[in-house]
Amino acid sequence: MNELFKSTMDQSSPPARIDFNTPAMVRKRRVRAFKDRLTHWYVAIGGLAVLAAITLIFFYLAYVVAPLFKGESLTSEPVLNTAWMQDAGAPLMIAIEEQNQIGMRISDKGEVIFFNVKDGAELHKVALPLPAGVSVASIGKDQPGAPLIALGLSNGQVLVFRHSYLTTYPNNQKTITPSVAWPYGEAPLVLDEAGRAVEHVTVSADGDSLKLAGSTGTQLHVISLEQKENMMTGEMTREQTRIELPQMSAAVKAIYIDPRQQWLYVINGRAQADVFSLRDRTLNGRYKLLEDGNAEITASAQLVGGISLIIGNSKGSMSQWFMARDTDGEQRLMRIRDFKMGSAPIEQIKAEQRRKGFIALDASGKLGVFHSTAHRTLLIDKVTDGPGILALSPRANRVLIESAGKLLPLALDNPHPEVSWSSLWGKVWYENYDEPKYVWQSTASNSDFEPKLSLAPLTYGTLKAAFYAMLLAAPLAVAAAIYTAYFMAPGMRRKVKPVIELMEAMPTVILGFFAGLFLAPYLEGHLPGIFSLLLLTPIGILLAGFFWTRLPDSLRLRVPDGWEGAILIPVVLLVGWFSLSMSPHLESWFFGGDTSTWIRDQLGITYDQRNALVVGIAMGFAVIPNIYSIAEDAVFSV
User: Fold this and answer.
1) Residue 348 lies in a domain
2) Which residues have C-beta within 8 Å of that of residue 442, sequence separation ≥ 6?
3) Do 413 and 481 reside in the same domain of the chain?
4) Residue 10 pLDDT greater than 80, yes or no
5) Where is the chain membrane-spanning (predicted)?
6) What pLDDT, on a 0 to 100 scale, did the predictor assign at position 233?
7) Which of 134, 226, 508, 550 would bridge with 239, disulfide CB 3.0–4.6 Å?
């Protein structure tokens, strides 16, 4: 009995407990805990690294953009020691070479003196070949940045020369050697055959063509010089012609020629400009430059590129003018912008050589820094006690002023004058445009170009492209998601959904490259086929569905439920092939052989390869996977 009870107790007692603290289990738990901690830190560090990278990108972009909001500064430097200026004559023009190391001074004695900009020491002197008993009466130069200079002489002749700077590295030491050259010969050119003093002069070189204009009193003189070189002998031949222009009604104050040698601007009288066409040799018009009858023109200059004129007056104001077409389609001198510096008369204006900026000095010694396109007054500061002669370096980072027999150097920090709220978001009237416009064009190859930085077309284009992309992508993606979730067989869904989501891996750069190089020209050449495809595809699908319902059950039941969509693949391919192959015939039958021309002539719409249809297809292809995946997951989960 006891043995039976003991046996029963043994059978009903709980089994022995498993020992989880064996060395092997402890070792596994330690390894698992180490992996958990490693994964925890790996995920945490990865997430923090992503946040740190995004933050660094933000700070880097802020660092790059910060100079746009930096203010301009003008720093005075010690007056240069220029003892050689005592007997150097009155200054006609001063200039600075690109490296800010050498300055140039041209005097009324016919001497060109090169000096060190840092200490004022004389480096090199060139005596220009003036005829005996002849003095310098005036000076003029080509557009800003061009090295050509013309001296008007007292005997009616003009001496044309250029200054240049050769950089060499003897013994690994940088050396800049200034020089003067006479590209049209050392002999002066005869401008006034009567031998009267040339009071104002200007010069313009365009390749082998030289235009030279000057005035003697109220009489204008213009000569055209064509210089050609014999390819066999190297001999230079010059052909000179004289352009006859009418006599002015008032005294001439300044003369300018545009770089294309089309227009001659003559500033005359108190506030008038006469514009002549050098090609037609006719007067384009007489323009009143000042509305205030008590003001008169005191200074003028061409901006870089030679298209715009900056006119300064006795009231301390300036205005920008250039040729543009009026409502009648005629080229007229238009007033574009106004700038205010102070109340003292503007004495001199100097244009930058690489941007549409300029500086001005008034009679009270104030120096102003301006940018024409951005319509900005960047800086106004008093630098001297009176008027003087200005020089601005090619990089616009150094200013030199000769006033009261002294040379005053100034350091100018003006990195981004072209950026303003109006230039980024407002309409801007650019040179060679007939009206203010929103334009984005950051670079070009010619010297008269100015960056056009309007963000309005970029913003509008981005929103427009997104709208057309969504117009194409949203219906297709949502409809595909509904069909996949509700009607497609699970086996087919497992194949279709990953393929569509893999489309998201396609780089947008590749899509844009494909759209620009292949899709855009292909659409232009097959417009009737593309529009036929848009019309025939839904019709073909409906007809296929109709005929499918009319098939015997024995055939229809062979296709499993949810796989009917696969039958439409050959239907869509057949409709696409038919539409595109019929495109040339449709174009010939209905559109006169050229659909683009027909659309332009009949509908008044200019077809451009870079159109909304191309953008919609390319960007729509990029966003379809995102919309499809989100919509399909939402529909299928519900």
Assistant:
1) yes
2) 451, 452, 453
3) no
4) no
5) 38-63, 465-487, 499-523, 529-549, 561-580, 612-631
6) 74
7) 226
3-state helix, strand, coil in the chain (%, to 5): 35, 30, 35
Question: Is residue 188 classed as helix, strand or coil in its secondary structure?
Answer: coil
| CATH code, domain carrying 388 | 2.130.10.10
Quick one: DSSP state of residue 569? H
Name the residue with tokens 């090295």: 147
% of the chain with per-residue pLDDT over 90: 45
User: Are the CB atoms for 348 and 360 separated by under 8 Å?
Assistant: yes
pLDDT single digits (tens) 445-474: 665 578 888 999 989 888 888 888 888 889
Question: Looking at residue 582, what is its pLDDT?
Answer: 86
pLDDT, tens only, 81-140:
888 888 888 999 999 999 999 999 999 999 999 999 998 999 999 999 999 989 999 999
Cα-based distances in Å from 403 to 94, 113, 314, 345: 12, 17, 20, 16
Q: What is Dmax (Cα atoms) for the chain?
A: 157
Helix, strand or coil for residue 102? Answer: strand
| Rounded alpha-carbon distances, angstroms, from residue 246 to 152, 175, 269, 491 | 20, 50, 15, 91
CA distance 564 to 483: 11
Q: Which two tokens stand for residue 231?
A: 């390819």
State the total domains in the chain.
3
> Shortest CA distance to 289 belongs to which of 260, 256, 322, 263?
322
How many residues are given for the chain? 638
Asked if 283 contacts 331 with a C-beta cutoff of 8 angstroms, the reply is no
Shared-domain flag, residues 406 and 536: no
Higher pLDDT, 424 or 16: 424
Mean pLDDT calculated for residue range 353-369 = 94
Residue 323 to residue 332: CA distance in whole angstroms: 5
CA of 289: how far to CAs of 257, 286, 336, 431, 471, in Å? Answer: 18, 10, 11, 18, 52
Q: Which of 61-70, 321-330, 596-605 has the lowest mean pLDDT?
A: 596-605
Residues 117, 102 contacting (CB under 8 angstroms): yes
For residues 591 and 583, is the Cβ–Cβ distance under 8 A?
no
Rounded distance between C-alpha atoms, residue 450 and residue 444, angstroms: 8
> Sign of the C-alpha dihedral, residues 395, 401, 407, 411?
negative
Which residues does residue 167 pair with via DSSP β-bridges, in sequence order? 176
Least-confidence region, from 211-225, 525-539, 591-605: 591-605
Q: What's the confidence (pLDDT) of residue 97?
A: 94
The answer to whether position 407 is within a domain reads yes
User: Alpha-carbon distance 576 to 64, whole Å?
Assistant: 49
How many CB atoms neighbour CB 614 within 10 A? 22
Phi-psi region of 112 (alpha: psi -120 to 50; beta: other; left: phi over 0): beta
Question: Is 215 a member of any domain?
Answer: no
Please say whether the beta carbons of 505 and 512 come within 8 A: no
Distance CA 269, CA 3 (A): 141
180, 196 in Cβ contact below 8 A? no
Is residue 374 a contact partner of residue 357, using CB atoms and an 8 Å limit?
no
Q: Which two tokens stand for residue 130?
A: 């003036």
Of 127, 148, 163, at which residue does a domain stop? 127
What's residue 1's pLDDT?
Answer: 47
